[in-house]
Write a structure and sequence with these properties.
Mean pLDDT: 78
Structural class: mainly alpha
Strand order of the largest sheet: 1-2
Number of helices: 12
Distance between the termini: 137 Å
Shape: rod-shaped
Low-confidence stretches: 156-168
Number of domains: 4
Length: 257
């Protein structure tokens, strides 16, 4: 039978549609048979192919890197188009992160209440992929962070023992004294400084974040026993700078003639 009139190859594959392959010489061949033969040849010459690939990579390093980048970009585009990639990562992002790293991220979130710390451990783009593919894990992490922030926000700060100030280093006291408002009454400032020292030593506040939390301690001091709009203490500083107390500026009593 002439090749031009064949409807099937010798193995029974139809010579039509996508299975019909036209060679450069214009001959009609079977695509299925061609693929089978190519696969069998690759299996039989696997070591030769690998050796040739290693040799090519060694002699053309720049071309190999560019090929890898191009293949990676094409794969990312294909996965994104299919909804299977996020930030360059697929559903296997958890295996890339690892169980130990993910456990460490959860522990850090429970201790600090900061999502930025989680992104530092896991990786910003990898965490975005985790949020996309595993929303339950992301929701659990958000819950832990929210609970820790709420605990730090609503925690009632109790006055520290007077001896706690003697335990702290001079550097810590200088840092706290510099951020506590000097316009407050002296007894109120002392209570705030004492509370902040205790919070730093107990690990509830990081020493590098005392300026961010000073407002929390000031508000807590008003809630406990300080009247914001009440009479001023005569022991408070008369000026924002200096150690002169208010009582030292009084020259005449209220009932003096």
């Amino acid at each position: 039978m002439p090749k031009a009139t064949k409807t099937h190859c010798k193995h029974g594959h139809p010579l039509e549609g996508d299975n019909l392959r036209i060679t450069k010489a214009g001959e009609r061949t079977c695509r299925a048979c061609h693929n089978i033969n190519a696969r069998n040849w690759r299996e039989a010459n696997r070591e030769q192919i690998r050796s040739s690939q290693r040799e090519w990579r060694a002699t053309h390093p720049e071309k190999y890197k560019e090929t890898q980048r191009r293949n990676g970009r094409n794969r990312s585009r294909r996965l994104r188009a299919e909804g299977k990639a996020r930030n360059g990562y697929g559903p296997n992002v958890l295996s890339l992160i690892g169980r130990e790293t993910l456990s460490s991220a959860f522990e850090t979130a429970a201790q600090t209440g900061q999502m930025t710390e989680v992104q530092v451990i896991v990786g910003k783009w990898r965490w975005g992929a985790v949020r996309f593919f595993y929303p339950k894990i992301a929701a659990q992490m958000r819950k832990i962070v929210f609970e820790k922030k709420r605990q730090l926000r609503v925690e009632i700060i109790k006055p520290a023992a007077p001896a706690i100030i003697r335990v702290a280093s001079l550097d810590l006291l200088d840092r706290i004294n510099a951020v506590v408002p000097r316009g407050l009454p002296k007894d109120q400032r002392d209570d705030i400084i004492s509370d902040m020292v205790e919070a730093v030593l107990s690990g509830r506040v990081r020493i590098n974040a005392i300026a961010e939390h000073v407002g929390q301690f000031v508000r807590a001091s008003y809630r406990i026993d300080h009247n914001k709009f009440g009479p001023l203490s005569l022991d408070m500083p008369a000026f924002q700078e200096g150690e002169t107390r208010l009582v030292e500026t009084i020259s005449r009593g209220l009932w003096s003639e």
